[in-house]
Write a structure and sequence with these properties.
Strand order of the largest sheet: 2-3-1-6-7
Strand content: 5-15%
Structural class: alpha+beta
Number of helices: 15
Helix content: 55-70%
Number of domains: 2
Largest sheet: 5 strands, mixed
Order of helices and strands: HHHHHHHHHHHEHHEEHEEEHE
Length: 473
């Protein structure tokens, strides 16, 4: 109901804007633009408590746009039919565009679950195409109109910012399921019309800086679409986390980005070669705007590679269930310790007693829960420079240093296993058989592990469930 009322009122005002007497047109204009404020406030209230950043940015953006509109109306009504004269109103429009871009990126980050690479690629492409639009279309128009540099600069920044916004929103449409909702589509269409309005305003403005009033219809339609996006029921889906897309910088994708980077300089240089007017400063700014985006993109790829390397190392050295060092990492650590000198190196080979009955009776999920609980307790039995590993199944190997390491660690294990464990909501008791072996001068890794393993089996022979049995080799 609210969406229908808003769409009907805004649609009528947009459609009848040019019918109003010229001196009264500021009222339907303000009604549409100011109507976006309560619409965004409604979207802000609908958003979850931890996902309101995009809407706060959107609210600030709409507020700045409205301040700029009010300033523009004051200028237009007091100084004639002047629009877009490089006044302070343009500063508010530029700030509103920057906040709109921030809101779009915040949406993309949530929908793409940190899709930084995709956002950057989209922004690089959009900014590059915005630079082409400036060099090939807008700059020649400004040259014909003899527009002051101040207004050229403000329009340039506005176009680049809105182009980046549109690229970010298109990324949402391509990546996220929420991109197919009406709210995202309406918002993206509003951003596209904002860019179209700025371009049309430049192309049809006369030499005396008077812009035809029909171009305001484009901006009004953009405001109406953004407001409709905010009041649409699907707005609740906009800030929900989406799936994480693949971020592979393939050769084709890299080539495409390289072409985008080269477009603006190539077109600017081509115009210079042909003797047509060019603005080297703004072309340089357009190219410079891409440099930090590319640098962040490269840094992102480097960070992803480091994360992948750490993940692979973790997979190779860690037990997937308990997070402890796995068998291979344990043997490597023991080999390293023996190479540094076998003195005071001790191995405790631990095997759980009563684990199989619990696993058989309560199921594998309960068995996994019990193994994780045992691993957590064993971590507290050793010092920071010692190692706890899951050797396999319900076997754990601890590597310790110190003359009294075996006695201290065994006492801690006995204390911890004396308390019951919780598995599948039920309290269970298990014991631990421990075989301890100290390194000898001629020991290899296999020698030490085998002695500790044999001692553990000796300990099992005299074992009762719920207690600790220790045999030294």
């Amino acid at each position: 109901m609210l969406l229908r009322c808003y769409t009907a009122v805004a649609g009528i005002l947009v459609a009848t804007y040019l019918v109003w007497p010229y001196d009264l047109r500021q009222w339907p204009f303000l009604a549409v633009t100011l109507g976006g404020v309560p619409a965004v406030v409604l979207a802000l209230r609908r958003a979850p408590a931890g996902a309101r950043t995009p809407w706060w940015l959107m609210l600030a953006s709409v507020a700045l746009y409205n301040i700029g509109n009010i300033v523009w109306i004051v200028i237009a009504t007091t100084g004639g039919r002047v629009t877009g004269d490089g006044s302070v109103a343009e500063l508010f429009f530029t700030g509103g565009g920057a906040l709109l871009l921030g809101a779009s990126i915040a949406v993309v980050r949530r929908q793409g679950r940190g899709d930084v690479g995709g956002v950057l690629d989209s922004m690089i492409t959009a900014v590059a195409l915005g630079g082409v639009l400036w060099s090939a279309v807008l700059l020649p128009a400004f040259t014909r109109q003899d527009v002051p540099v101040g207004r050229q600069m403000s329009t340039f920044v506005t176009v680049i910012v809105i182009a980046g916004t549109l690229g970010a929103m298109l990324r949402v449409s391509l990546v996220s399921p929420a991109g197919r909702t009406a709210s995202i589509r309406l918002f993206t269409a509003g951003v596209a019309l904002t860019l179209a309005g700025n371009v049309a305003g430049v192309l049809v403005t006369e030499a005396n800086s008077i812009r035809p009033d029909w171009t305001n219809n484009i901006f009004l339609a953009a405001y109406a679409l953004v407001g409709a996006a905010a009041v649409h029921p699907s707005v609740a889906l906009v800030t929900l986390p989406g799936r994480a897309p693949n971020d592979d910088l393939t050769p084709g994708r890299l080539t495409f980005l390289g072409v985008m980077l080269a477009l603006t300089p190539l077109i600017g240089g081509g115009r210079a070669v042909l003797g047509q007017p060019t603005d080297g400063v703004l072309i340089a700014l357009s190219s410079a705007a891409l440099v930090p985006l590319v640098m962040v993109r490269v840094a992102r790829l480097a960070a992803q590679r480091r994360d992948a390397e750490r993940a692979l190392h973790r997979l190779a050295t860690r037990d997937g269930l308990t997070g402890l060092a796995n068998r291979g990492a344990c043997l490597d650590r023991l080999t390293e310790a023996l190479s540094e000198g076998p003195r005071d190196v001790a191995v405790l080979f631990c095997d759980l007693d009563g684990f199989k009955p619990v696993n058989d009776r309560l199921g594998h999920a309960a068995g996994d829960e019990l193994l994780i609980a045992v691993a957590d307790r064993l971590r507290t039995c050793v010092r920071d420079d010692d190692l706890v590993s899951r050797f396999g199944g319900d076997e754990f190997v601890l590597i310790c240093r110190g003359a009294d390491a075996v006695d201290v660690v065994a006492a801690r294990i006995a204390e911890l296993t004396a308390r019951p464990f919780t598995a599948s909501g039920e309290q269970v008791r298990i014991g631990v058989s421990v075989g301890a072996a100290r390194a000898r001068p001629a020991d290899t890794t296999d020698d030490l592990i085998n002695r500790a393993d044999l001692a553990m089996y000796e300990a099992k022979k005299s074992k009762s469930v719920g207690a600790l049995s220790l045999v030294r080799a």
